[in-house]
Amino acid sequence: GQNIDQPTEMTATEGAIVQINCTYQTSGFNGLFWYQQHAGEAPTFLSYNVLDGLEEKGRFSSFLSRSKGYSYLLLKELQMKDSASYLCAGMDSNYQLIWGAGTKLIIKP
Amino acid sequence: IAGITQAPTSQILAAGRRMTLRCTQDMRHNAMYWYRQDLGLGLRLIHYSNTAGTTGKGEVPDGYSVSRANTDDFPLTLASAVPSQTSVYFCASRRDRGETGELFFGEGSRLTVL
Question: Among candidates A5, A81, A71, A92, which has minimal Cα distance to A36?
């Protein structure tokens, strides 16, 4: 079956670094997405990885290991506005997205 | 402003009533999707449409129907609402089914069935 696993909740301190892990199992693989979702709002796109390695975009970076079925999202210099849920989604061979339940990130001052 | 518009934003509905959630996009995207989001669960695909005139069933289609008469509109209908359909519904789109690009979301419709 298809499955995406990520931690339910994480807590970090303002100014610090946090890594949110995601493991995936999909029927075929066409890439791994990360979305950010603030409470009561729609998800917004953060990153897409299809090749192994690290993609950096400002304070956010995303890593993929296809052989391990593993990805992580790295957030640096955390700000209070980064408090949100982070959704991991794998794209299967039919180009459908399989979503994890999301990781709620709580930032403390 | 280009994007996806959903209506209504929020609705309380009596069980057994019929309800249509509207979704319109002005990006000329071919592929459109309806998801529901429930606490503790990932986004679950209800129905999708790869292009105007075609629709398909997702993971949780029972109790829902869709139509795609044109490129812009993709309404979701609950023929006879039940309390288990209480959820937040998101419409989404991307340029084409086989594209690995960004999926754009509407602001969501919060539906409560009593």
Answer: A81
